[in-house]
Design goal:
This protein is mainly alpha-helical. The N terminus is likely disordered. Helices cover about 75% and strands about 0% of the residues. It is globular and about 55 Å long.
Length: about 475
């Protein structure tokens, strides 16, 4: 691994990237070139898997005890845990191997088309306990393929950006993902999930509405990922490198980690701290709907409305904060955003019974949505920071490590959430259901730890 200088960006100037230079000249310096729009369309496409398959629709369907048995929820947790372990093992070596071979476009195409195929196959998971294992296998496999694609996709940002606009471009991509997810969810909700008889005569019999929704999600992923899959190109093999197999790839990964620690420990601190606060972000979205229902009395319809609004807010904020990222630097945006989320979480906890003119629901609406303002900007700025410090030709390896460190602590937010509720119930004498609001405290603690460990990370000097 070449030397990493966190005091100054290592992304080469536009003039050294002929394809990008031509694009910028043609568009008179505009940021949203054809290359950027094609890249951002993959985020829009990936919302089908993120929002529809793993979060709001298929995972909820698969864990319905009346359809797939009482053990479905627990087994889903184990399946996704195994998928996470596989991703953590594969991601850094894959990233390093892709950097050496230059086959980034090929790997992205394979991973994305695999996600499309798996999503379409979810149609065959009919509501029967015998089909549970098929659903678990497909969902876990889809997660692996999706995360592999994400490693390559994230690393590609250095090919379409400069140090002066990488923040805005990253924010644009994340924003496209949020907004795309909301658009698709609304289409599926209105057309298939909510009505007794949906579009094309689809009904809820035998889970047909959910299964058809998976076909729509697969088509959505294929159509909107096509611009990037069609235009992305492999790079020449790195001079002087030959394939060394999986063992050789891991030898290089461990050597790179040692080198990172010796050259600049700030990079290592970033990988560790970002893994912690990113798990806190995951906790916000994973448990937000549960908290709204269990602790603040939201009905099912109110939860959906809150989810739509919070995601729209997150998408708009992510795109907007990209400007601040380029002006103030990624480190400033991350510190400001994680600190704000920590404070908002504590406010929701402290005033869970209401404050002033706001009742309990009002508190969650105001400060819960306010908290969501900062989720996307934190994710986007983290990607931007890593893009700015990645040596040219080694982006895949660093983004692979980024994915691995995130997976390594993915247990933290769920553990702290559950532990905080148990401790809160023990202290107050309340039942676990009544003490559900203590879960907010667990998530806030994860965010705070992530913020404190991020402090040693150095800032970037913008070109």
């Amino acid at each position: 691994m070449t030397e990493i200088n966190t005091a100054q960006s290592v992304i080469p100037p536009v003039s050294e990237i002929p394809e990008l230079a031509a694009d910028v000249v043609k568009t008179d310096g505009k940021i949203f070139t054809k290359k950027v729009l094609a890249w951002g369309s993959w985020d829009w496409a990936s919302a089908a898997f993120n929002a529809v398959v793993t979060t709001f629709v298929f995972s909820v369907y698969l864990t319905n005890a009346n359809l797939f048995g009482s053990s479905a929820n627990t087994l889903l947790g184990y399946a996704l845990s195994i998928a996470g372990i596989i991703i953590a093992i594969v991601a850094p070596a894959l990233g390093q191997s892709v950097d050496r071979s230059g086959k980034s476009a090929t790997v992205l195409r394979i991973a994305t088309l695999t996600v499309v195929a798996i999503t379409a196959c979810l149609f065959f998971v009919s509501p029967n306990e015998n089909r549970l294992w098929l659903g678990l296998f497909l969902l876990a496999s889809g997660n692996i393929a999706f995360e592999i694609g994400s490693v390559i996709y994230n690393a590609m940002i250095t090919d379409i950006s400069t140090p002066k606009n990488v923040g805005r471009i990253s924010g644009f991509g994340w924003g496209m993902g949020y907004v795309g997810g909301i658009v698709l969810l609304l289409i599926l909700f209105v057309g298939f999930i909510s009505p007794e008889v949906g579009w094309f005569g689809v009904t809820k019999d035998n889970g047909l509405n959910i299964r058809v929704a998976m076909l729509i999600a697969a088509a959505w992923t294929f159509i909107f990922s096509a611009p990037l899959l069609r235009t992305a190109k492999d790079k020449p093999r790195r001079p002087g490198t030959e394939s060394e197999g999986i063992i050789g790839a891991y030898r290089q990964v461990f050597a790179s980690i040692r080198e990172l620690w010796e050259i600049d420990r700030s990079v290592v601190w970033f990988l560790i701290s970002s893994a912690i606060y990113r798990d806190g972000l995951a906790g916000v979205f994973t448990f937000g709907a549960i908290l709204a229902s269990a602790a603040f009395g939201f009905s099912g319809g109110e939860v959906i409305i809150f989810g739509v609004i919070s995601n729209v807010v997150a998408g708009i904020a992510t795109i907007s904060f990209g400007v601040l990222d380029d002006k103030l630097g990624s480190r400033a945006v991350i510190i400001m955003s994680v600190a704000a989320m920590t404070v908002f979480s504590l406010i929701v906890f402290l005033f869970h019974d209401g404050v002033g003119p706001l009742d309990a629901k009002g508190v969650f609406w105001v400060f819960g949505v306010g908290l969501c303002v900062f989720v996307g900007p934190t994710q986007s700025a983290s990607r931007t920071y890593l893009a700015r410090i990645s040596p040219k030709g080694e982006e895949g390896e660093l983004f692979g490590l980024y994915a691995t460190t995130g997976r390594a602590v993915s247990f933290l937010a769920p553990f702290m959430y559950a532990t905080a509720i148990s401790v809160g119930a023990g202290i107050t004498g309340l039942s676990l259901d009544e003490a559900a609001y203590f879960g907010i405290l667990g998530i806030a603690l994860v965010l705070l730890i992530g913020l404190l460990t991020f402090i040693p990370v150095k800032a970037q000097i913008k070109d």
